[in-house]
Design a protein that fits this description.
The chain is α+β, with helices and mostly antiparallel strands. The chain folds into 3 domains: 2-101, Helix Hairpins, CATH 1.10.287.1260; 120-168, Roll (SH3 type barrels); 174-255, Alpha-Beta Plaits. It has 7 helices and 10 strands. The strands form 3 sheets. A 5-stranded antiparallel β-sheet has the order 4-3-2-1-5. It has a 3-stranded antiparallel β-sheet with strand order 7-9-8, covered by helices on one side. A hairpin with a 4-residue loop joins strand 8 and strand 9 (224-229). Helix 1 (2-49) runs antiparallel to helix 2 (54-79) and helix 6 packs across helix 7 (237-255). The model has no long low-confidence stretch (mean pLDDT 80). Pfam families: MS_channel_1st (PF21088), MS_channel_1st_1 (PF05552), MS_channel_2nd (PF00924), MS_channel_3rd (PF21082). Keywords: Cell membrane, Membrane, Transmembrane, Transmembrane helix.
């Protein structure tokens, strides 16, 4: 009886002790979850006030929530007497293995975060990279979606966009159009320049500042080439580019300006 009584007493003590630890661990988890939610909201609101991209803000706030909950669970397991050192080591090993397996995705993710924070381009910008040009329609932490002028959808890895040279045609409000018109040597230079000036001055989309440049580019074996450099609003670039060439050709025809058919234009 004495042995049974002693064993029963030990069991009761162990149950009582474990019950206290279990309640403490449960309370820690509850407090940790509440703290995680509070920090998640705090980080999300702070990033929103700082005008950080919504995708990055959502990811960062969720990451804070997961990190706090994970730390709370580990602390609670320690409260129950679980050896957390080996558990953390196992998680670390798993993390390293996952990192090695997903190193390409992780590099794209890191580049995506930098793109969202540094903003070398934004949704709606027209960019060129890797011999591909298109309008940005979506920036994801792993890739960026472009729509080309001929309506193709391009999904580009963020690492490529961030590491390679990138041209953002929408970053500045104004763009310069580089045009070249050729004429034969029998034409008067001043007359040709005046015709080009007349066409440029009639187009109200062409800006007065910066000033348009019209000048002789070079002398070739077949004729003379004139460089024309008007400035326009970025949104008008394509329309003006094509319409100015058409207008100059029509004026050349009206004025009898001869253009050798084999004269290089570019």
């Amino acid at each position: 009886m004495d042995n049974k009584t002693e064993l029963l007493a030990k069991i009761q003590i162990w149950i009582a002790d474990f019950g206290v630890k279990a309640i403490s661990a449960f309370m820690l988890v509850l407090i940790g979850i509440q703290l995680a939610r509070f920090l998640q909201t705090l980080v999300g609101n702070s990033l929103q006030k700082a005008r950080i991209d919504a995708t990055l803000g959502s990811f960062a706030s969720n990451l804070v929530y997961i990190a706090v909950v994970a730390m709370t669970v580990i602390v609670a397991m320690g409260q129950l007497g679980v050896q957390t050192a080996s558990f953390i080591a196992i998680l670390g090993s798993i993390g390293v293995a996952i990192g090695l397996a997903l190193q390409g995705s992780l590099s794209n993710f890191a580049a995506g975060i930098l793109i969202i924070v540094l903003r070398p381009f934004k949704v709606g910008d027209y960019i060129e990279c890797l011999n591909i040009g298109g309008t940005v329609t979506r920036i994801h932490p792993l890739n960026t979606t472009l729509i080309t002028p001929d309506n193709r959808t391009i999904v580009a890895p963020n690492r490529k966009l961030f590491d390679d040279c990138l041209t953002n045609h929408s970053a500045q409000p104004h763009r310069r159009i580089d045009l070249v018109f050729g004429t034969g040597y029998e034409n008067d230079i001043d007359r040709v320049k005046q015709i080009i000036w007349d066409v440029v001055e009639r187009d109200r989309r062409i800006l007065t500042e910066p000033k348009t440049l019209v000048g002789v580019l070079d002398w070739g074996s077949l004729g003379i080439r004139f460089a024309v450099r008007p400035w326009v609003q970025a949104a008008d670039y394509e329309d003006v580019y094509f319409e100015i060439q058409e207008a100059v050709k029509k004026r050349f025809d009206e004025e009898g300006i001869l253009v050798p058919c084999d004269l290089p234009r570019y």
